[in-house]
Amino acid sequence: MVFRNVIVCHMVPGSDNIVGDVFGYYDESTRPQDLGVIGRRLLSFHDLYIHVIERKEDPRISGQTRGLPAFQKIAEAIAPYVTPYPKYWKNPSDSVAKEFYSWVPDEDSAPESAGRNLTVIIGRIKPGAEPDVARIFGESDAGSLPVQLGVTGRWLYSIDDVYVHLLERTDAAVADAAGQDHDQPVFAKIMAELSPYISPYNPETWRGPEDSVAKEFYRWQAED
């Protein structure tokens, strides 16, 4: 099982390629895997920068808590484009979102697939609503729906008023869905239960669930 950290910042719209190129250079010229990092994904959503760091295990267990060897150089290079999001920001650790819920199917019911497809969903969360959101998903995930939809994992995070939902599904499930999952009555019920706590990040541009999906603009995976 991959352990993930999620970093959320502001990002200047349109700077995806610049930021991606910086990470591309250092991911290739250094060895993040020597520090337990096996992958990273960079995504953008309106004025947000979402950085998903993938590790072999929780760094609190492995003791490998450092980032890239060139962390300071990367920070300086992206500083004109990536800035802190939380109002309470004092140091880099304040940009790490807090995980407040996770779910994976047990081995007997886990969907079989050669691939895993990660979708990153963004919204706004009502302050202090994490327990209620976790309860709603916990009740839903306790049933058969997630496995029926090919879900292989779900992780929920919050930072300030930002809600980040990592949804992992089999490649086959994503290919078969074609956007039809949102039409299921049970999905509508979950959305209705979440509505007092979760809202669109940008209501002016939101037309449906697909408008809450962040765009991936850079990915790196360790080869060894």
Shape: globular
For this structure, the quaternary state is single chain
| Class by SSE composition | alpha+beta
Number of helical regions: 7
Task: Write down the Rg.
Answer: 18 Å
Unreliable sequence segments: none
Strand line-up across the major sheet: 4-1-3-2-10
What's the count of strands?
10
Order of helices and strands: EHEEHHEEEHHEEHHEE
Q: Tell me, rounded to a whole number, the average pLDDT.
A: 88
Helical coverage, percent range: 25-40%
N→C terminal distance: 17 Å
Largest sheet: 5 strands, antiparallel
Approximately what portion of the residues adopt beta-strand conformation?
25-35%
Organism: Micromonospora purpureochromogenes
Protein name: Polyketide synthesis cyclase
InterPro entries: Dimeric_a/b-barrel (IPR011008), Polyketide_synth_cyclase (IPR006765), Polyketide_synth_cyclase_sf (IPR038474)
Architecture overview:
The chain has helices at 16-29, 59-62, 71-78, 130-141, 145-148, 171-177, 185-194; strands at 3-11, 37-45, 48-55, 82-84, 98-103, 116-125, 151-159, 162-170, 198-199, 215-221. The protein is an alpha+beta fold and 224 residues long. A hairpin with a 2-residue loop joins strand 7 and strand 8 (162-170). The protein is globular. The two termini are 17 Å apart. InterPro entries: Dimeric_a/b-barrel (IPR011008), Polyketide_synth_cyclase (IPR006765), Polyketide_synth_cyclase_sf (IPR038474).
